[in-house]
Design a protein that fits this description.
The chain is built from 12 helices and 17 strands. The chain is of the alpha+beta class. The strands form 4 sheets. It has a 6-stranded mixed sheet, with helices on one face. A 6-stranded antiparallel sheet has the order 10-11-12-13-9-14. A 3-stranded antiparallel sheet has the order 3-5-4. The radius of gyration is 22 Å and the shape is globular. About 0% of the residues have low confidence.
């Protein structure tokens, strides 16, 4: 089989892109360098391995992330299908057993008759139609090739990973099961409540903890949506309590609200390992154990994985990419995933899906039309191509990336209006392009949340 498209990188973006192209009859050569060469964050050779959180964010169809999931599902998304098959209880979010999820994606991609999976490191940008989906941990050799092609400096920011704890090592008498506002199942999250005194002691310990070093010019380069807890703690004594440790929507057995809460979410269906939600950290490992032991129930906690920091690389997309994710200086080369400046698993996979749709049309001799910016898929591309290149930063999908509505509405109505407009405009676009989309059940009514 001669590949019509070469994809470099077997993460969420590359796997989704390969699967979408192959399902549209396009032969694909997919190259993944693991296990020949690993990265500082990966632990296995599976495709679509999740290295940070195991959550794909809100599944509310009126939330921007939930809307993006529905749009991807209408295209037959591999990533969303695998996520639903490997889902673990997570209230209103879609979270997965990361091993089952990666196994399902790997199986689907590696057994597809139109996909050839290669295991080696690409040192140069391949010839022909190519999609670079090498992620934020792109190897040095390929990154240098890309920078030479762009004739520009790459941007980068630091990302951090939350710890994972063995539930059997926790004192369950001090913890309770509940989801915020009783969303999802009552036992979706495990909660460690803190009194005011316990919270203040924990906050001070976070401030005093020894951190993994960064250069001075790198200290402001953390992604705002994934800040380490010590960065949040520095912003004020209550910042953590209004962020990852917020007690809102949770009640103790006596009906009172705890002063602060640490929430834990399942890593697997086996209910053995839980991650600390929103507890990304760059504390040194001995410090993590010392500080986290101050959380009620964590006195003898055993950690399956401790938090860590790694550098994420991305390009200045508004300067270099067009609406089809093509590099303007070399249109045969497309960028997908976090390398483009989208942030998050969901958004990375969505970019790979969009590229596949455009490429399949182009290879059939059609003239692709960009997916409308009023949709979640199109809004992501709008962020990458219309943002100010002097102030470009990675972003998750949110309604701030969409064009404004024609009229001002209350928040709850506004979310439904965004979603209704997106579904309508995606249907009209698909009809113009001759693309058949899957039909999904209509959502009942707007859910809560931002």
């Amino acid at each position: 089989m001669i590949s019509a498209v070469t994809i470099v990188g077997g993460g969420l973006a590359g796997s989704e892109c390969a699967f979408q192209l192959a399902n549209r009859g396009v032969p694909v050569g997919l190259t993944e360098m693991r296990p020949v060469r690993s990265t500082p964050a990966h632990q296995t050779d599976r495709l679509a391995e999740l290295v940070c959180s195991n959550s794909l964010r809100s599944d509310d169809p009126f939330h921007a992330a939930g809307l993006l999931k529905r749009e991807m599902e209408r295209f037959g998304s591999l990533i969303i299908s695998a996520a639903r098959e490997a889902a673990v209880p997570a209230g209103g979010a879609l979270a997965v057993d990361r091993e089952q999820f990666a196994d399902r994606v790997t199986e689907a991609v590696s057994t597809h008759p139109l996909i050839q999976l290669h295991r080696h490191e690409e040192m140069q940008i391949p010839d022909g139609e190519v999609v670079l989906a090498t992620g934020p941990l792109t190897s040095d050799a390929l990154a240098e090739e890309l920078l030479e092609l762009l004739d520009d400096d790459s941007l980068y920011f630091y990302d951090s990973i939350a710890p994972i704890v063995d539930i059997e090592s926790l004192d369950m008498q001090l913890l309770f099961w509940a989801s915020r506002y009783d969303k999802g199942g009552s036992a979706d999250y495990l909660n460690a409540p803190l009194t005011r005194q316990e919270y203040l002691a924990f906050h001070q310990a976070v401030l005093d903890a020894e951190l993994a070093p960064l250069h001075d010019f790198e200290k402001d380069l953390f992604f705002e949506g994934c800040l380490p807890i010590e960065e949040l703690a520095r912003r004020g004594v209550d910042t953590l309590r209004f962020g990852p440790m917020k007690p809102v929507g949770l009640r103790l057995a006596d009906g009172s609200r705890p002063y602060a809460v640490v929430q834990l979410r399942r890593e697997s269906l086996a209910r053995e390992h839980f991650n600390l939600v929103g507890f990304q950290t760059r504390m040194k490992w001995p410090e993590q154990k010392r500080v986290l032991a101050l959380i009620p129930g964590f006195q003898n906690a055993e950690f399956v994985r401790l938090g860590q920091v790694h550098r994420n690389t991305f390009v200045n997309a508004p300067r270099h990419l067009d609406a089809f994710y093509r590099i303007r200086q070399s249109p045969r080369v497309r960028l997908a995933g976090q390398l483009t400046g989208v942030e998050g698993y969901l958004e990375s996979a969505a970019s790979g899906l969009a590229i596949a749709v455009y490429l399949a049309q182009q290879l059939r001799g059609a003239d692709p039309e960009p997916i409308p910016p009023t949709t979640a898929l199109g809004a992501l591309a709008r962020h990458l191509t219309e943002s100010d290149p002097k102030a470009f930063k990675p972003a998750n999908i949110n309604y701030g990336l969409f064009p404004e509505l024609a009229q001002r509405l209350p928040k709850r109505q506004r979310r439904q209006a965004f979603a209704d407009r997106a579904r309508r405009d995606l249907d009209l676009w698909a009809a113009r392009q001759g693309i058949e989309l899957l039909e999904l059940p209509e959502p009942d009514s707007p859910g809560g949340g931002a």
